[in-house]
């Protein structure tokens, strides 16, 4: 691994991300195998839209939650029939555009969404499948009563076919029992609709929110254990309905590597500090609070001497004391021009940072696979262009 990272660095520059699509494909295949052939898997591209360019064939669906994500699908010539057009904020313009793109499925998070989708479908002479989102107790989706009212009055909608429900309550669920409880709720709801409303919900799109471990050495083992802990219940529900499991973080997290160069080193009040050319504007882990958790980091240096390790606090380039990536990281001979590689940054990290704070450059983005090698898919962006006011 270290040799690969060193070889990649020479072609890359910093700050930069590398997303290894072979690792992404391997994780997708692991999930597909655990859940079985009857269960479809869906990649939620908000986790990492860049790797959509190399989407493995085992995916059946793509979840899109914004007009911008729809644009990404258009530019990559994605199969629009795979697209589930989701998101809590849908306007008439958004729905009309998705309708003309011929997306495969719409989700509705409110009665307003139902009406927007129905009106657009009727105006375009279409009849489109819709998943009604059932709330998990947040601003997303609808209460059971409202959802059931729509089902009861389904014949009044001439442009939509209510094919099933969408259910997702949140991310980073560590206990399989919590996910199984949600699956039981979905299963019971499907049964109730059939018995009390004489209507069959044929499809379920369910987001597990399966947790990813960022700060543990045995992360892969823990994640596979969680996956296997829900697999049997997933398979059971997949025998009953056309089940699609939607995830983003769990698929993408292991495939990312963030490269950042050490610019300066110093000791203040007995603490060793390294200033790097990235920072929290570019790198974000779930659960990363003031750098108190230490992810896996590879130190790339031309100095192979084995001096005693010292603790280092790794800080970014922003003018805020909050810009701490990790504390008490044990490293040997850390010095300017060395490179630090943060692992497991394939999901959200590149998208969630405060990208334009302090008008620093935004990182180069690359994809890597054994067959295609290293490809730059977004070069450095200099965010001062976004922060400079224009006057007439």
Please describe the biggest sheet, giving its number of strands, its sense, and whether it closes into a barrel. Answer: 9 strands, mixed
Cα distance, first to last residue? 53 Å
Cα gyration radius (Å): 23 Å
What shape does the CA trace take? globular
Query: Could you name the ranges where pLDDT drops below 50 across 5 or more consecutive residues?
Result: none
Description:
- With 392 residues, this protein is of the alpha/beta class.
- It is 31% helix and 27% strand.
- The chain has eleven helices and 19 strands.
- Strands 1, 10, 11, 12, 13, 14, 15, 17 and 18 form a nine-stranded mixed beta sheet that branches. The protein has an eight-stranded parallel β-barrel with strand order 2-3-4-5-6-7-8-9, surrounded by four helices. It has a two-stranded antiparallel ribbon with strand order 16-19.
- A hairpin with a 2-residue loop joins strand 10 (256-268) and strand 11 (271-276).
- Helix 4 packs across helix 5 and helix 7 (176-197) runs parallel beside helix 8 (219-240).
- The termini are far apart.
List the defining traits of the structure above.
alpha/beta; 392 residues; 11 helices; eight-stranded parallel β-barrel; single chain; 19 strands; nine-stranded mixed sheet; globular
Write the layout of secondary structure elements.
Blueprint: H1 2-10, E1 16-20, H2 21-35, E2 40-44, E3 61-64, H3 67-75, E4 83-85, H4 92-100, E5 105-108, H5 111-123, E6 128-133, H6 144-152, E7 160-168, H7 176-197, E8 203-207, H8 219-240, E9 242-247, H9 249-252, E10 256-268, E11 271-276, E12 297-300, E13 310-315, E14 324-331, E15 339-343, H10 349-352, E16 361-362, E17 364-369, E18 373-378, E19 381-382, H11 384-387
Parallel strand pairs: 1-17, 2-3, 2-9, 3-4, 4-5, 5-6, 6-7, 7-8, 8-9, 11-13
Antiparallel strand pairs: 1-10, 10-11, 10-15, 12-15, 13-14, 16-19, 17-18
């Amino acid at each position: 691994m270290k040799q690969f990272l060193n070889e990649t660095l020479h072609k890359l520059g910093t700050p930069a991300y590398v997303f290894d699509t072979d690792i992404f494909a391997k994780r997708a295949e692991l999930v597909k195998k655990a859940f079985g052939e009857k269960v479809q898997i869906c990649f939620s591209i908000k986790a990492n839209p860049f790797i959509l360019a190399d989407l493995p064939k085992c995916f059946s669906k793509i979840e899109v939650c914004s007009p911008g994500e729809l644009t990404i699908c258009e530019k990559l010539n994605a199969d629009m029939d795979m697209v589930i057009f989701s998101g809590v904020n849908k306007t008439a313009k958004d729905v009309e555009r998705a309708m003309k793109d011929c997306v495969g499925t719409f989700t509705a998070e409110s009665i307003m969404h139902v009406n927007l989708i129905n009106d657009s479908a009727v105006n375009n002479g279409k009849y489109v499948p819709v998943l009604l989102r059932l709330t998990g107790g947040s601003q997303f989706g609808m209460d059971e009563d409202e959802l059931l009212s729509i089902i009861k009055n389904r014949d009044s909608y001439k442009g939509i076919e209510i094919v099933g429900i969408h259910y997702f309550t949140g991310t980073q669920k560590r206990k399989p029992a919590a996910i199984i409880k949600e699956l039981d709720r979905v299963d019971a709801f499907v049964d109730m609709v059939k018995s009390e409303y004489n209507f069959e919900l044929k499809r379920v799109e369910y987001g597990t929110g399966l947790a990813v471990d960022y700060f543990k050495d045995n992360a892969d083992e823990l994640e596979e254990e969680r996956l296997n802990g829900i697999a049997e219940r997933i398979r059971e529900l997949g025998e009953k309905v056309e089940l699609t499991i939607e995830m983003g973080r769990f698929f993408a997290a292991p495939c990312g590597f963030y490269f950042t160069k050490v610019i300066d080193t110093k000791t203040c009040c007995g603490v060793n500090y390294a200033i790097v050319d990235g920072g929290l504007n570019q790198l974000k882990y779930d659960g990363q609070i003031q750098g108190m958790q230490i992810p896996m980091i590879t130190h790339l240096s031309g100095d192979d001497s084995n001096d005693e390790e010292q603790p280092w606090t790794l800080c970014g380039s922003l003018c805020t004391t909050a810009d701490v990536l990790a504390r008490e990281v044990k490293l040997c001979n850390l010095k300017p021009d060395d490179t630090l590689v943060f692992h497991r940054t394939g999901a959200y990290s590149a998208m969630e940072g405060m990208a334009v704070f302090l008008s620093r450059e935004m990182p180069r983005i690359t994809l890597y696979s054994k067959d295609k090698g290293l490809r730059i898919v977004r070069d450095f962006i200099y965010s001062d262009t976004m922060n400079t006011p224009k006057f007439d």
